[in-house]
Design goal:
Rossmann fold; 233 residues; single chain; globular; 7-stranded mixed sheet; alpha/beta
């Protein structure tokens, strides 16, 4: 995949978070192109772009609506006619009547709140409510594809604390993810990323990614800070 396209799909920490696409691609490859697809928490429309380029019609949503940047990117890649835009609050909105074959999201569940401007409403109950709504909107045999932030190593946790990020997000353990997705008939959970790929020099990001693929085999999954799940209803 071309670097510019991958940047538009993933946006940040691109090398590490793009590992999710490798996990999800075999599922996507098996789906008929008339499958109904819902993308949640899209903001700039990256995952919607990825799926539209593969021939799917996508409903692209965010809590406060999609940005103009998303629409412009979709036009640039020639897929605007394959994407429908909508606002969706996955916590407070009632599940839509139409059901989907695939629901996909990246770095969403750790940030959901009952009340948008109140961080105190970012609770287990809120996350459970969001997943329950997602479950309802999936067809029987449908898939939830989600990538989320894990706690990661003690070094990663210390770096987040120093940067003041611990109060603004919920960072999962693998067991948290398993519990949250327990109602699905089958869930496969993967993890990746020990060293972030956020360096200014591309060669450093490439080196960090390669090192992460090696460390993945040597260190416990708890050291990784990204989870990738494939949950089958």
């Amino acid at each position: 995949m071309q670097k510019e396209l991958l940047n538009d799909i993933i946006e940040w920490d691109v090398y590490n978070w793009s590992y999710a696409l490798k996990i999800w691609q075999p599922i996507i490859d098996k789906l008929p192109r008339d499958s109904k697809v819902l993308a949640i928490g899209e903001r700039n429309g990256g995952l919607s772009l990825w799926l539209a380029l593969q021939g799917f019609q996508v409903v692209c949503t965010d809590r406060q609506g999609i940005t103009d940047k998303a629409k412009e990117i979709h036009r640039q890649y020639g897929v605007a006619d394959k994407i429908q835009y909508a606002s969706l609050d996955i916590v407070n909105d009632m599940p839509v009547e139409e059901q989907y074959d695939v629901i996909i999201m990246k770095s969403v569940l750790g940030g959901v709140k009952e009340t948008y401007n109140d961080a105190h409403t970012r609770t287990d109950n809120t996350r459970q409510k969001a997943v329950a709504h997602i479950y309802t909107m999936l067809k029987p045999n449908g898939f939830l594809l989600t990538a989320d932030n894990l706690q990661g190593s003690s070094l990663m946790q210390a770096a987040r604390a120093k940067a003041g990020k611990t109060d603004n997000w919920y960072y999962f353990s693998i067991n948290d993810i398993k519990t949250l997705l327990a109602n699905f008939s089958n869930t496969d959970i993967y993890s990746f990323g020990i060293i972030p790929t956020r360096f200014s020099w591309p060669i450093c990001n490439t080196a960090a990614y390669v090192l992460n693929t090696i460390l993945k085999r040597l260190l416990p999954s708890s050291f990784n800070y990204i989870s990738i799940a494939v949950a089958h209803k």
